[in-house]
Amino acid sequence: MAKKSSLNFIELHVEKIVLGLAVAFAVVIVAYFIMGPNTVEYNRQELGSDELDEAIARSAEALERARVIAPIELEPVPESARLLQDDYKSGLALGGDLPQRLIVATSFGRPTPEFEVEEPPKDIVLVTPLQPAAPPVMRTGMSLIYRQALTLGATSPGGTPPAEEEPVECAWVSGAVWYPKVAQIRDMLASGYEGYRSKVYVVGVDVQRQQMTASGEFSDWREVEPGTAMPRLEIPTPEFDERTSEVRNQADLDRTLEVIKASQVVLMEPEFYEVAGGDDWRMPALPGLADEEEEGEVKWEDPRPKTESSGQSPDQNQGMSKREIRQKMGEIKDLLKQEDWSGAERAAQALINNAQASNTQKRQAKGFLAQARKSREKEQRRNQPSGGRGTSKPGGLVTDPNSDEKDPDPAIWFHDDSVEPGKTYRYRMRVKLWNRYVGKRAVLRDPAQAEQTVLVGQWSPPGDPITVAPKTRFFLKAPRFGEGAAAASVDVFTWHAGEWYKGSFTVQVGDVIGKVKEIRTSELDDSGRSVRADLDFTTGALVLDLRIDEPVLSRSSTSKGDFNYSEVDSVVLVCLDPADGQVKERIGRLDRADPDYKRLKDEAAN
Q1: In angstroms, rounded to a whole number, what is the distance separating the alpha carbons of residues 573 and 474?
Q2: Tens of pLDDT, residues 410-455
Q3: How many C-beta atoms surround the C-beta of residue 499 within 10 A?
Q4: Per-residue CA distances from 186 to 194, 200, 370 (Å)
Q5: Is the pLDDT of residue 294 over 50?
Q6: Which of 365, 481, 488, 574 is 20 to 30 A from 541 (CA-CA)?
Q7: 332 and 444, same structural domain?
Q8: In terms of domains, do 456 and 536 share one?
Q9: Distances from the Cα of 526 to the Cαs of 324, 331, 345, 498, 535, in angstroms?
């Protein structure tokens, strides 16, 4: 009963309870607004109603000032319609210029990869060109040449001057080495070179020589200035923009590299001058190659059919008069000047076969025959599409036949046409390569190395001494007996216009061997007679002593291949050699047996 009466009380007074709670809530709200702060957050600040209006006004004024001061940058809107109209009006038919790069309408196949890409920053150290593994091997000669300079990269026909119209006498020395190209590439790759930058491009060689002095010792090393026989090429130096570090003359560097790539055969193995007479140029005998000293020399063999009765050919029985023979000599020379090699060969052969020709004339005719054959063979080699040399690979380079590499080491050689006849020299050389990282400062450990266009290698070991082919040579023959002081006869040979001439002289102590002498040359006048000219046989050698009967040792060979030595008497001459300033001794018996003496006597045009 009690429980029931309590529920009735709540039900009876529920309206009063709700009304009381509502009045209490209203009182709390009113108290909050009247007694609590009336603020609003603005620009990260709590502001009352009286401060809010001022803050908003200040922000508006600042915004207006910024709008007035700051310029408004508007992006240009292309006038597409006008540009399209201009392109249409300036078409090919109206003489407009083509754009440097045409728009690709569609792609065909895979895109071409970019090979010459800029490398990311690295730590590359440039590789020094390797030293040739062996000393240079040498060859010398005396030639009648058409001197012509060779300038690479000439953009106009007048860039390389034409050859001289008249041949000139030239003493020369050539040296050659095998260059370790394979080892060079390996060094580049080991140093971090990119694959496409590890290819070797030779720019040329530096050459130094020593000259033998009177004491028998060699002088200091001196630079050999490149003569006109060596190709010339202007090498630019990179010019950097100090602000951006870019290479301003990159186009010049790229153009020069393309010339070097296309001229590797000429730069590594430059051709010699065109030879009109004298010694033909031959490559020095490198290790692994057969010495071609005798190659190209025409060994004359009598092609005449022999008869059973007399052993003579029909041509010999026909004969010519002396006047006709002289005219035939002039005809052969004219054919050689006209470069009619086959006609010159036929005419020379007919003169050799003629019974009325003297031994001197036949000897000259054999020389003309050899010259015609050499010239014809040289012309055939020149017309071959590539190289034409037995050891050449496609592209023309002479390579090491003993190499097992797929791309063997090439030969590199030089010509020195500034030498003096009769002097003795010793040479060394070094190779110069194109810097594959020229201008690439960002990828090198030492950025200064990017400023070098050409890298210079190490010097090769010095080669063996070589005596330049002399222009005059003398040989001691025999003593001359008579009244007065002791005397001896000598034969002097002088080189003139591509031929050797002989003069005989008598000398005593204090004489200079040789002098100017009138000689009948191989040149013919209009009437077919030999032209006489004054030739200089002066050797410059001064006779210091002369002994008529000096005991000397003579060597003779036996049938068993041994040698016997015996003491014999011979004339001995002591002289001062002007070529090197040394005192030398000449022995008559040895000079008369010298193979060079016999060869020069056979070759002498007179």
Answers
A1: 12
A2: 999 999 999 999 999 999 999 999 999 999 998 999 999 999 999 9
A3: 19
A4: 12, 11, 47
A5: no
A6: 481
A7: no
A8: no
A9: 13, 11, 22, 21, 21
The count of structural domains within the chain is 4
The reply to whether 233 falls in a domain is yes
With respect to residue 480, please indicate whether it lies within any of the assigned structural domains: yes
Termini Cα distance of the chain: 173
Instruction: Verify that 242 and 146 share a domain, yes or no.
Output: yes
Q: Give the C-alpha separation, 493 to 236, whole Å.
A: 49
Instruction: Report the pLDDT value the prediction gives residue 203, as an integer from 0 to 100.
Output: 95
H-run or E-run covering 536: strand 530-536
Residues 516, 584, single domain; the answer is yes
Distance CA 205, CA 457 (A): 9
Cα separation of 239 and 219, whole Å? Answer: 39
Element (H, E) at 371: helix 359-382
Based on the fold, state whether residues 449 and 377 are members of the same structural domain.
no
Residue 143 belongs to domain spanning: 137-156+168-269+410-467
Q: Is 305 exposed, middle or buried (0-12, 13-18, 19+ CB in 10 A)?
A: exposed
Rounding to the nearest 10 degrees, give the CA dihedral for residues 218, 220, 223, 227: -30
Q: Do both 257 and 147 map to the same domain?
A: yes
Residue 117: pLDDT above 60? Answer: no
Question: 40 Cβ partners below 8 Å, 6+ apart?
Answer: 46, 47, 48, 49, 52
By C-alpha distance, which of 223, 278, 381, 20 is closest to 390? 381
Domain boundary among 450, 467, 484: 467
E-state strands within 78-201: 137-146, 168-178
User: How many Cα atoms sit within 13 Å of 582 on the Cβ side?
Assistant: 16
**Residue whose structure tokens are 């037995």:** 390
Say whether both 323 and 419 belong to one domain: no
Residues 143, 265 within the same domain: yes
Report DSSP letters for 299-340, one per residue: -----PPPPTTTS--HHHHH---HHHHHHHHHHHHHHHHTT-
Burial of 513 (0-12, 13-18, 19+ CB in 10 A): buried
> What DSSP string runs through 220-250?
--EE----TTS-B-------B-TTT--BTTH
Last residue of a domain, one of 16, 39, 62: 62
Q: Positive or negative CA dihedral for 159, 261, 397, 171? A: positive
CA 181/CA 409 separation, integer angstroms: 5
CA 90 to chain centre: 48
Q: Which residue has the tokens 């191989």?
A: 522
* Phi, psi (degrees; rounded to nearest 5) at 45: -130, 145
Residue 557 CB partners (closer than 8 Å, separation 6+): 563, 564
b/e per residue 79-111 (b: at least 16 CB within 10 A): eeeeeeeeeeeeeeeeeeeeeeeeeeeeeeeee
The DSSP bridge partners found for residue 309 are none
Gap between the Cα atoms of 500 and 436, Å rounded = 50
d(CA 563, CA 570): 20
**Per the structure block, which two tokens stand in for 485?**
């002081």
| Maximal C-alpha separation, the chain | 191
Tell me whether residue 128 is in a domain: no
Give the distance from CA 490 to its chain's centroid: 45
Taking the C-alpha atoms of residue 351 and residue 415, their distance in angstroms, rounded to an integer, is 38
**How far is Cα 232 from Cα 150, in angstroms, rounded to an integer?**
6
- Does residue 197 lie in a domain region? yes
